[in-house]
Amino acid sequence: MKVLITGTSQGIGKAIAEAFLNKGHVVVGIDRQPATITHEGYVHYVCDVRDYEKLPDVDGVEILINNAGTQNEADIDINLKALIHITEKYGVREGIRSILNIGSASAHTGAEFPEYCASKGGVLAYTKNVAMRVAKFGATCNSLDPGGVLTPLNECVMSDPELWAEIMDETPLKRWATPEEIAEWAYFLTVVNGFCTGQSILVDGGESINYNFVWKN
Prior knowledge:
Shape: globular
Oligomer: single chain
Radius of gyration: 16 Å
Helix content: 25-40%
Strand content: 15-25%
Distance between the termini: 44 Å
CATH superfamily: NAD(P)-binding Rossmann-like Domain
CATH topology: Rossmann fold
CATH architecture: 3-Layer(aba) Sandwich
Number of helices: 7
Structural class: alpha/beta
C-alpha cells in the first residue's frame, strides 16, 4: 500500500516509516528536515506542514499518518491546524483505507503545557469528525495517543537523573515506550484493523492513571 507519513526524519515518524518499508509498503514522507531514511520504497519531501501551498501532490494515498508535531509556541498551528489541512488534502477522499493521527496522553489528562494539551485535545475531537466522514469509503480514522517515548525531543528529561526518577515514579510500568513499539501500534491500527474507528487509543505505560505531568522547569 501507499502510505503518507508526516514528520519522518526522526523519532516516532521515522520508526513508523521504517516499519512500513520493512513490510513492503511504499512510503512518502514529509518533513522540514532532510531525509534520514535510505530505501528504494521511500520518497521524501522537504516541506513544513504549515506551508500549505508548497505541499507536494501525492496521488493514491491509501494510508495517512499524521505524525508531525511540536511542543512550543507553534503547537496549535502544527499539531492541529496543519494536521487538519493535511487530512483534508490527502485523506478525506475515495480510495483512502485508514487515517491515523498521533495524539498524546496529555489530551486525556490535561497534564502538560496549555497550548500543547489544547492542540492534542483538538486532534481527539477532529479524529471523530473524520471517522464519520470517511466511513462511507469503508475507511477508519483513529488517534494513537502515546505517553512518554524515548525520542530526541525528550532528551532534556531523559538525561536528568532526578527528573527521570520522578517520572518513573509516575509510570506504573517503570519505563517509556520505544519508537518501534509505537510504530507497531500504528501498523496495527492502519493495516490490521478494519473496524475500530473514531477512537483514541492510549499507549502510555499507565502514566495517565496518575495525571501528574513532570518536566524540566
